Amino acid sequence: MPNSSSGGLGHVPVAVYSCAAEPPAVHEAERRARHYAEARHWHVAGVWSDNDPTMPLDTRSGWSAITDALSSGLVRGIVVAGAMHVTADAAQFAALGVLIRDRGGFLAEATNSSSRHTPGQHERRRILFEAAAGWTPWVRLIPGGVQ
Questions:
Q1: What confidence tens digit (pLDDT) does each residue in 6-23 have?
Q2: In the chain, where do the E strands start and end?
Q3: How far apart are CA 69 and CA 86, in angstroms?
């Protein structure tokens, strides 16, 4: 059973998973993974956690619940704050991702993605929004325009 109810309205149902010995670390990992999912408009169907990272992944009760949710179709993906919540290294994380993909799901690591904005995009958008709202003269839409 998930540790929290679903949150957010998205198109892809996902599970958030974390595993850490200390409750504050679990909560922080859940927060990061949830934020990552919600930023992509994924529906967080549930949040599961375990408190003993030394246990093998397949013996953890939270992880077992997530794999059951994946098998039943309740979720289509699993989001973790970092690979260390489920594996010891990047190669194991990639292999786990392949295993989950073979079962029709996906595994995502909540990372800080780089900005997709082009140079000057923020300024152009600000000018367009101000102009559309009538806050500035239309001449500001032309780069280098006189005010």
A1: 444 458 999 999 999 999
A2: 12-19, 42-50, 77-80, 106-109
A3: 17
